[in-house]
Sequence to fold (506 residues):
Amino acid sequence: MQHKQERTPPQAPLKRVVIVGGGTAGWMCAAALARLAPVGTQITLVESDEIGTVGVGEATIPMIRLFNETLGIDEDEFVKATQGSFKLGIEFVNWRQLGHRYIHAFGVMGRGLGLISFHHYWLKHALKHGFTDTAAFFPSGAAAYANKFVRGGPAESPLSGLNYAFHFDAGLYARFLRGYAEQRGVVRHEGKIARVEQAANGDIAAVHLESGTRIDGELFIDCSGFRGLLIEQTLKTGYEDWTHWLPCDRAVAVPCASAAPLTPYTRSTARTAGWQWRIPLQHRTGNGHVYCSQFMSEDEATAILLNNLDGEQLAEPRPLKFVTGKRNKFWNRNVVALGLASGFMEPLESTSIHLIQSGISRLLAFWPAAGLNEKEVDEFNRQSAWEFERIRDFLILHYHAVERTDSPFWQRCRSMEIPPGLRSRMELFRQHGRFFREGDELFTEAGWVQVLLGQGIEPAGYHPLADQLSDQQLEEFISSTRTDIARAVAPLPRHEEFLARFCPAP
Ligand code: FAD
Fold:
């Protein structure tokens, strides 16, 4: 007798998705789902004007371009609409020691010669002639320091290795994405959520606004900011606190009028118990001071910020509190947390908006087929935690690998225990300059190498394959690489000129 073939039960597609929160996370998610979620998915977003958004967060990393491209957003339109500027990297001032500076430039270092990365040749050269700044060997670094900008170059040009991101007004970006999402059918409700309704099994069934409106759904995306309205206040998911590794827990932010030059890079200046950011937009410059409340009072932190502003102060300083870490689960029951609701790491390497983006693409990769699947949810959580932890280690490197001893804060950072994975990466690099990027972790070998060197970890050796070049060949290779990059950068337009020509803000 022929057995009936077993079939998978028909799949019930997910129909109703509710996004709680309309900050950068909420509107990025709404825009992406409006474009990419299966046809027929109804997307509703709730935001409260009274509660508002966190209102800071203006520097990004290059992956954001992929997000905009996927949504079909014209880059010039986006830069205009968000008062944006271009970003080629981050300059770190006074981190390794007072008076020292280096840049973490985006993109590629030098050029390849075969199996090993350019930095090994550079290291061999540096061990003979002395360690210098790596910026000149990065098209993005050289252009940043010359205040020039272009969107890359042809394959045969050194400019092909140039990579960039943006500085932008996050509030304007959210508004821009709101227009995009609403045009594609996302329904927005303005109002404060007064109550969260749970089903008998503990899942979220609906949210109730103060107005009495009830909004139900099958999947809820918690983009409610630090409060984590669903993921924490309702589901009590728990939080892994990383303050013992990243001790800063406060920030004070203040916008200023634009101050020339409009640099195509973010600046991070280390202070006695934290660091100060400077983010140039077209219409203003964002300034803020991230600090550790154990070592500095709010008044002191505010005074340091106000004494070190570039440009006329436009508003009163705004204090913010945070706890560095992540939720124990990013997806719990039928709630997925994105943005500040999922966890927070200080903006030292501008990673928060990127984490929203990667959370959205992971959500799409795990889009439920037929109800929620425990194994898939576990894997979503494992991948999210892994991504957070790799970024965390990169940030810890900045604090730990310092020569500064001028304040109790830096003394503590220098002597703290660090995660074993980071310790072995530092040891590996210290020996022969080796670094291995794992899986699809965010920061590249070139990014790590710049920060490892910039923070003062100077390897004792280099990869033996670099010896394939004779001393004379090595001299020529290093010097021609630097010259070719400098020549390619010299005729580029200044950053302000580029903006004025292609994407002036209204
Ligand atoms: P929020 O902006 O807080 O939005 C929360 C939303 O939820 C709001 O719309 C609010 O109205 C809504 N909401 C909350 N409760 C309710 C309720 N009961 N009813 C209805 N609605 C509700 N990121 C970067 O990538 N680069 C940076 O340079 C950077 N700098 C930063 C500096 C600081 C000091 C801080 C704190 C963060 C920074 N970030 C940065 C992070 C970035 O600001 C956030 O990742 C981003 O803005 C996302 O915020 P969010 O949308 O998760 O939360």
About this structure: Residues 21-26, 46-48, 51-54, 56-60, 170, 192-193, 223-225, 227, 229, 251, 253, 288, 320, 322, 339-341, 347, 350, 352-353 surround flavin-adenine dinucleotide (CB under 6 Å).
